[in-house]
Design goal:
By secondary structure, the protein is an alpha/beta fold. The chain contains 13 helices and 13 strands.
Length: 311
């Protein structure tokens, strides 16, 4: 990737020639290698009058070139800077949200389709923003992942869910299993097992009532390591669910080796399950696969009678 500070002499034609030239194959140790170039261009004096400012803005343009598919060039514009500023502002606000306890958990019920009885709940995080109201996770979790705050937020969710689960028991309700989503950063952290054990102990919560949801794509990134991590978690008594199942590339052989308890069918498949034959076929296959492995199937996002009837 290349950032360029120029005074107007570097034209679009030259930038294009650079991209094309660098794309030519290069022979290294008898092997043909293919490179690509993403070029960001800042101009003097329109974008700045000192090297540090120009280089910073050329870098911003370079990252925009990468986002646009790589192997291209982009001139800096002030519009490029706005998303970066917004992310920085949101990141600072997220840190304050943690310090000021602005996050809340909502609990979505899991229902047995045969009896209608509630079999557990899934903890869903929301941000009670002081100015923008209640925000869903897709409006802040990506920034939390970029800034690294997802680890702290994940620890808060785990602790709050365990405390709520025990509060229900203390109120005289029957045992209610509580499911919590794990992010990639949490799952890959070597302290995960310790932090889960600590959350359960601090809340006096039964670990057998805690369910951890890990996405299929995350598990398939490194199946061998995933098996080791999941086995460690299972030894603590917690239940494991594979989330968003049906959107990744799991094989039956690999799936059978994972120490999991349930498969959660992705909501995108459930949405049109009553009208789309392809989605219905995939969902049926997932349910049959789960049954053959003696796993529970969880259908995500059931909102219509036709979906429920099919399931």
């Amino acid at each position: 990737s290349t950032s360029a500070i120029c005074n107007g002499g570097l034209t679009k034609l030259l930038a294009q020639r650079l991209v094309e030239t660098l794309a030519d194959p290069v022979a290294l140790a008898g092997t043909e290698c293919h490179l690509g170039a993403s070029i960001g261009i800042a101009t003097f004096p329109a974008d700045g009058d000192d090297a540090a400012t120009l280089l910073k803005k050329a870098d911003i343009a370079m990252y925009r070139a990468k986002d646009a598919g790589r192997s291209n060039f982009q001139f800096y514009s002030e519009a490029m800077n706005q998303p970066l500023i917004e992310r920085m502002v949101l990141g600072a606000a997220l840190k304050r949200a943690l310090d000021q306890e602005q996050f809340v958990l909502l609990y979505q019920p899991k229902v047995d389709v045969a009896t209608g009885a509630m079999t557990g709940v899934e903890a869903l995080i929301r941000w009670q923003h002081p100015e923008r109201g209640l925000l869903p996770p897709d409006q802040f979790i990506p920034v939390a992942e970029e800034t690294g705050l997802i680890r702290q937020i994940g620890r808060w969710v785990l602790r709050a869910a365990c405390l709520q689960g025990q509060a229900w028991r203390d109120a005289g309700l029957p045992p209610i299993p509580v499911a919590v989503n794990l992010s990639a950063r949490e799952f890959n952290d070597e302290r995960l097992a310790f932090e889960i054990a600590q959350a359960v102990v601090d809340a006096s919560f039964d670990a057998r009532l805690l369910e951890l949801e890990i996405t299929e794509s995350l598990v398939m990134q490194d199946p061998d390591r995933a098996v080791e991590t999941l086995a460690q978690l299972k030894s603590m008594g917690v239940r494991i669910s594979i989330d968003d199942f049906g959107t990744g590339h799991s094989s039956l052989a690999r799936l059978s080796k994972l120490p999991v308890d349930s498969l959660k069918i992705d909501g995108a498949l459930i949405r049109d399950i009553a009208t789309d034959a392809d989605d219905a076929a995939i969902a049926s296959a997932v349910i049959a696969m789960a049954a053959s492995l003696r796993l529970t199937s969880i259908a995500e996002g059931v909102e219509e009678a036709g979906q429920l009837s099919f399931l």
